[in-house]
């Protein structure tokens, strides 16, 4: 199979590399996001997929518009059998309808659950016991196309988004090659998605990063797992001023404290406690400080007692 690969972030690279090295299929070109200025110097930064493609001398296309006629002509001239998409923006029909074997996406959830931009984060955030990866054919809506293949995996009760990300990245790359193999051999029958789902996966906003005070403490722990290590799990404490800081590591305690949500510091230990349990903090990052353990942070400080969460 002759492939054009569409993707941008590091998550997509594993699938591109698996296709390149499997010995069965050929990556003709990679389509990725345009270079963007980043950092203090606003120097142009290339995507992870572009770096991968350049390393392997694979042609790269970076259209500002996917509907551009010259870009579509370039794609057509490649005479690809199939397009493979991982973590890329929505494609117009003029693109996804080009190859004879269609265009499929590798999505890090068990569709129709967690359609959207951040399926791994939200599966962990909501404490799902299992998730997985799905390959599906693109259509004119987001993550609604006919299902091709799925693979399930359990989610560990203490597993973070970062840990699950690596596992699903590898699973997705293998499933993509299997999907190509079965499409080529005409042994794969697409199954329409006929069921909607209550579980959505919208883009992560800053408000999602904060400890959800209105929920029980177990949900706090799941929210911590879902936002860790990226983009980060945040809370606030009221001292002489309100301080916002990042929780890097914590544990869930199901003790019944019978308290309104609050910070509690005793000796070198720090809890965020509520009526149905608590988080015991183990490592934090204070504004302007390096990451450190709670024991190290509290050493020599006079923080003791109860403090309001804002």
Q: Can you give a write-up of this model?
A:
The protein is of the alpha/beta class. It is built from eight helices and 18 strands. A hairpin with a 2-residue loop joins strand 15 and strand 16. Helix 1 (10-21) packs parallel to helix 6 (161-184) and helix 5 (119-125) runs antiparallel to helix 7 (217-226). The radius of gyration is 23 Å and the shape is elongated. It starts with a strand and ends with a strand.
Helices, strands, pairings?
Layout: E1 2-7, H1 10-21, E2 26-31, E3 36-38, E4 43-45, H2 48-55, E5 60-61, H3 69-78, E6 82-86, H4 93-96, E7 103-107, E8 115-116, H5 119-125, E9 130-137, E10 147-154, H6 161-184, E11 200-201, H7 217-226, E12 233-238, E13 242-253, E14 262-266, E15 269-274, E16 277-285, E17 292-293, H8 294-298, E18 305-308
CATH class term of the largest domain: Alpha Beta
CATH topology-level fold name of the largest domain: Rossmann fold
The coarse overall form would be elongated
Largest sheet: 7 strands, mixed
Count of spatially separate domains:
2
Please mark out the parts with pLDDT under 50 across 5 or more consecutive residues, or reply none.
none
Structural category = alpha/beta
Mean of residue pLDDT values: 95
Q: Order of strands across the widest beta sheet?
A: 5-2-1-6-7-9-10
CATH 2nd-level architecture of the largest domain: 3-Layer(aba) Sandwich
What is the CA–CA distance across the termini? 56 Å
């Amino acid at each position: 199979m002759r492939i054009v690969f569409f993707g941008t972030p590091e998550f997509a690279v594993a699938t591109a590399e698996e296709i390149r090295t499997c010995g069965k299929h050929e990556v003709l070109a990679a389509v990725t996001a345009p270079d963007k200025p980043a950092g203090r110097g606003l120097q142009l930064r290339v995507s992870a997929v572009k770096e991968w493609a350049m390393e392997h001398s694979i042609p790269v296309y970076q259209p500002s518009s996917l509907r551009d006629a010259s870009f579509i002509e370039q794609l057509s001239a490649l005479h690809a059998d199939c397009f493979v998409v991982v973590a890329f923006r929505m494609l117009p029909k003029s693109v996804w309808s080009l190859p004879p074997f269609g265009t499929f996406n590798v999505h890090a959830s068990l569709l129709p659950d967690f359609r959207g931009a951040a399926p791994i984060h939200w599966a962990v955030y909501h404490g799902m016991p299992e998730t997985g990866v799905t390959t599906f054919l693109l259509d004119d809506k987001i993550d609604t196309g006919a299902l091709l293949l799925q693979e399930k995996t359990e989610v560990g009760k203490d597993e973070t988004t970062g840990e699950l990300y690596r596992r699903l990245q590898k699973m997705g790359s293998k499933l993509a090659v299997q999907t190509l193999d079965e499409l080529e051999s005409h042994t794969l029958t697409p199954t329409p998605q006929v069921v909607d789902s209550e579980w959505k996966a919208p883009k992560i906003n800053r408000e999602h990063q904060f400890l959800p005070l209105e929920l029980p403490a177990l949900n706090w722990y799941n929210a911590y797992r879902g936002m860790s290590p990226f983009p980060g799990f945040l809370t606030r404490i009221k001292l002489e001023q309100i301080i916002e800081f990042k929780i890097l590591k914590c544990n869930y305690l199901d003790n019944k404290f019978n308290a309104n949500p609050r910070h509690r510091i005793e000796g070198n230990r720090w809890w965020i406690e509520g009526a149905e349990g608590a988080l015991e903090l183990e490592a934090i990052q204070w504004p302007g400080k390096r990451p450190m353990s709670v024991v190290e942070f509290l050493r020599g400080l006079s923080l003791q007692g109860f403090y309001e969460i804002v």
